[in-house]
Specification:
The complex is a heterodimer of chains A (about 120) and B (about 110). With about 120 residues, chain A is mainly beta. Chain A has no helices and eleven strands. In chain B, a hairpin with a 3-residue loop joins strand 5 and strand 6. Classes of the chains: A mainly beta (about 120), B mainly beta (about 110).
Chain lengths: ~120, ~110
């Protein structure tokens, strides 16, 4: 059974870098035809797609965050990671990792999600 | 960017009754529309994709319809576990630029 689990610091200071990792179990990232993505949700608000990565390292980012975000993959650990630079209070959110197919002609929906982790940006 | 707008923001319905939630896209997304259910403290759960196809294990009381810019999620007979927040999401583009609606909170009347 596929499971995703986010991990990382729950508190980050303004102007610093937020770093999270998603560990995938029950499937191999490198043998998968799926993309692995990050989505966030500020407290009491809606969902925002941050970006996604393929096991080969191909990445796609939300243009609104692209200048501050890097997503990477470590197939040897079956993990993928998120870095958000120069964070402000507006980056406070629950961060989810998830899986979706890719390419044209597919239903590119998030069919598996991690439980989410709250990251607070505060001094 | 395709903007997704859901209505209403909050819907109050009694158990056993039907609930109808709406989602509008700022431009056509074909049938590339999904619905998710989110309960407090939980991750979203995929309900519907392709505008009308139920996800794995989703009960038959959930149905989706629409295409282009207008979409509807209908829950035919509300159960207590259905009271939650519902989000629509478009996935029309590749490379992806996924956008979600702001959500509709379905509450007990």
């Amino acid at each position: 059974q596929l499971q995703l689990q986010e991990s990382g610091p729950g508190l980050v200071k303004p102007s610093e870098t937020l770093s999270l990792t998603c560990t995938v179990s029950g499937a191999s990232i490198s043998r998968s035809t799926y993309y692995w993505g990050w989505i966030r949700q500020p407290p009491g608000k809606g969902l925002e797609w941050i970006g996604s990565i393929y096991y080969s390292g191909s990445t796609y980012y939300n243009p609104s965050l692209k200048s501050r975000v890097t997503i990477s993959v470590d197939t040897s650990k079956n993990q993928f990671s998120l870095k958000v630079r120069s964070v402000t209070a507006a980056d406070t959110a629950v961060y989810y990792c998830g899986r979706h197919p890719g390419g044209t002609g597919n239903h590119n929906v998030l069919d598996y999600w991690g439980q989410g982790t709250l990251v607070t940006v505060s001094s | 960017e395709i903007v997704m707008t859901q209505s209403p923001d909050t819907l109050s319905v009694s158990p056993g009754e039907r609930a109808t939630l709406s989602c509008r896209a700022s431009q056509s997304v074909g049938s590339n529309l999904a619905w998710y259910q989110q309960k407090p403290g939980q991750a979203p759960r995929l309900l519907i994709y392709g505008a009308s196809t139920r996800g794995t294990g989703i009960p038959g009381r959930f149905s989706g319809s629409g295409s282009g810019t207008e979409f509807t999620l209908t829950i035919s007979s509300l159960q207590s576990e259905d009271f939650a927040v519902y989000y629509c999401q478009q996935y029309n583009d590749w490379p992806p630029m996924y956008t979600f609606g702001q959500g509709t909170k379905l509450e007990i009347k």
